[in-house]
Design goal:
Layout: H1 13-23, H2 25-28, H3 31-48
InterPro entries: CBU_0585/lpg0581-like
Length: about 60
């Protein structure tokens, strides 16, 4: 019977290359990526930060 090869902690050359690229900050920060990170930082801040209670509107008071 054939035995299964267990490849725990196996990393290909491609994985090592991509990790090396990601480690270099200069390769990681295109203008589009910086804009996307800023956008999502704002979204996360608005989502996670407790918002002040809004005043009740007279329009919706009867509903």
């Amino acid at each position: 019977m054939s035995q299964k090869i267990q490849r725990t902690n196996y990393r290909s050359e491609a994985t090592d290359f991509l990790r090396e690229l990601e480690a270099d900050e200069q390769n990681n920060r295109s203008p589009a990526r910086a804009a996307e990170e800023a956008k999502y930082a704002r979204v996360n801040r608005l989502r996670d930060k407790e918002q002040a209670a809004e005043k009740e509107s007279k329009i919706w008071s009867g509903f």
